[in-house]
Amino acid sequence: MKFKVEKLPQAEAEIKDLEKSQQNLLSEEYTKIETQGIEYVRVKPIQKDIFEIKSNELRSLFKYKAGKIIVVGVVFVKKTQKTPKEKIKLVKQRLKEV
Description:
- The chain has helices at 9-16, 20-35, 85-95, and strands at 4-7, 42-47, 50-55, 58-65, 69-77.
- A hairpin with a 2-residue loop joins strand 2 (42-47) and strand 3 (50-55).
- The protein is α+β, with helices and mostly antiparallel strands and 98 residues long.
- A five-stranded mixed sheet has the order 1-5-4-3-2.
- The two termini are 21 Å apart.
- The radius of gyration is 12 Å and the shape is globular.
């Protein structure tokens, strides 16, 4: 299923802080979601209403929104096996009003 990908301003800033190759990888993943469908990227549920797009070492935490839209709230480079609790807490805060 295809979804429109929206990014919160904070997530956009996090993407800009990444290396160019990492930015390109995320751009490809988001384009794939919009043109081919979310089933063509690796997505994992994290908690109720919070999901993770896995792109090599990069992670995008998002939630689904009505109208076939996903809203990316946090982008980071994952350095451990588990998603850090502070990132989950941060994405919940950011996506609360969405």
